Automatic annotation (TrEMBL):
One of its GO terms (molecular function) is dephospho-CoA kinase activity. This is Cytidyltransferase-like domain-containing protein. One of its GO terms (biological process) is coenzyme A biosynthetic process. It holds the Pfam family CTP_transf_like. InterPro entries: Cyt_trans-like, Rossmann-like_a/b/a_fold. It comes from Chaetomium fimeti. Coiled coil: none annotated. SUPFAM superfamilies: Nucleotidylyl transferase. Residues 210-396 form the Cytidyltransferase-like domain.
Length: 406
């Protein structure tokens, strides 16, 4: 993997509190814009990992971490929304393998408490917990090497970037030209009346499911996939329990023949691989990082794809579906279902079908909608924004260019 083909990293300091789309825009918009403008390439696609440092997990021990899913997914949705708005303004394509001047962005949450102090002899290592979110030391130990590393010009931005670089020392050789400071925004933090109060914590589950077409994987898809991954109850290495299961129903090719611009729909195999490759960026933890360029190992069985991560503790299963229900009415032990606003009614229909079979109802979680209007100083043309988060619009653009699928 050449240096230009490596992803770049933008480290964003602690998010504003209270967390709103307006406060996120004020805090992160300048930094995201600078990073996107820097990594875009006229000669090919670029990748950007946006790592948001925040105290997202509760619990003192690695085996008993908890999180507030609504807060976590709202933060991820806000960042992906900002990325989509900025890319619409800058004429940057956002889908995976989007070609020249495209940026494939991935949002990662890093659990970190600004009041945490490490001993002077602390040695960073990969220490996963029972969630898919990792701490700063684990992130620095498993996510590398980078093309550029962007840090925010602020006191907090300097603190978190220096912490990352300290933990990453010795894992990659960095030139000064690769370390790029970018403009910071205005971060609002309103003191709580009860500083010890925390948001209600969310249960995690051994088996989580969602469904979609995932054609030309874009920020809306990435939000859905990330939000569902946050609900996984990950076993610790060596625990005598099966791996947690992330079951993703991906619409079969036959069901998409009547889609608009159907000739540009990616094949099921391509869509499933893109889903697994994206999730690998969130779930895999390797002491070698990705410097050997080895892609995730995918096992194909009966037309479905399976991949495992974190020493076999997480199993991702991409299932080919030919109806609206998919594995939710064929796999009884699924506990949680993640939906978008467009598929909200599907969650109720699934539970009605499961009730007919005498099965337990699924806990249904709905992700936020990526929205341009609330984060814009000047209104973005709806069609421009929609093109960044709509598979149909992406296919239409390719048809207008007379291009191919890739």
């Amino acid at each position: 993997m050449g240096q230009d083909d490596r992803p770049s990293l933008l480290i964003l300091p602690y998010p504003p509190d209270p967390l709103t789309r307006d406060s996120l825009s004020a805090a992160y918009r300048p930094s995201l814009k600078s990073a996107l403008e820097k990594v875009r390439r006229p000669t090919g696609a670029a990748k950007l990992t946006v790592a948001v440092v925040c105290p997202v997990l509760q619990g003192q021990f690695l085996r008993s971490k908890t999180l507030s899913w609504p807060d976590a997914q709202t933060l991820v949705a806000g960042i992906y929304g900002l990325i989509s708005v900025l890319c619409a303004q800058l004429s940057i394509n956002t889908e995976v393998n989007g070609g020249p001047n495209s940026v494939d962005s991935t949002v990662v949450l890093i659990d970190d408490d600004r009041n945490k102090h490490y001993p002077t002899d602390f040695r960073p290592a990969i220490e996963p917990n029972n969630t898919t979110i990792v701490d700063m030391a684990t992130f620095a130990s498993a996510y590398f090497p980078w093309n550029f590393i962007f840090s925010v010009r602020s006191e907090l931005g300097f603190q978190v970037s220096q912490a990352y670089l300290k933990f990453a020392e010795g894992r990659q050789s960095l030139l000064q030209s690769q370390l790029v400071p970018v403009e910071g925004g205005l971060v609002l933090n309103v003191a709580k009346s009860d500083p010890a109060s925390v948001a209600p914590q969310t249960s995690t589950y051994p088996a989580v499911c969602l469904g979609g077409t995932f054609d030309y994987l874009h920020p809306g898809h990435k939000l859905l996939l990330t939000a569902a991954a946050l609900l996984l109850q990950v076993p610790r290495r060596g625990d005598p329990v099966p791996p947690c299961r992330y079951i993703i129903g991906i619409t079969g090719d036959e069901m998409l023949r009547n889609k608009k611009f159907a000739e540009f729909v990616q094949t099921w195999e391509e869509r499933a691989r893109n889903v697994i490759f994206f999730l690998a960026q969130l779930l895999e933890l390797s002491p070698r990082g990705w410097k050997d360029g080895t892609p995730p190992q995918i096992e194909e069985k009966d037309g479905d794809f399976t991949a495992t991560f974190r020493d076999g503790t997480i199993q991702v299963h991409c299932v080919r579906i030919q109806d609206a229900f998919g594995p939710t009415i064929t796999v009884e032990d699924i506990q949680a279902l993640v939906v978008s606003a467009e598929t909200r009614s599907g969650g109720q229909a699934v539970n009605e079908k499961r009730a007919e079979k005498g099965w337990h109802a699924l806990e249904v979680f709905e992700v936020d909608v990526l929205d341009a209007e609330e984060v814009e100083d000047e209104p973005t043309k709806t069609e421009n924004f929609a093109a960044k988060i709509s598979s149909t619009a992406i296919r239409q653009q390719r048809a207008a260019r007379g291009g191919t699928k890739i």
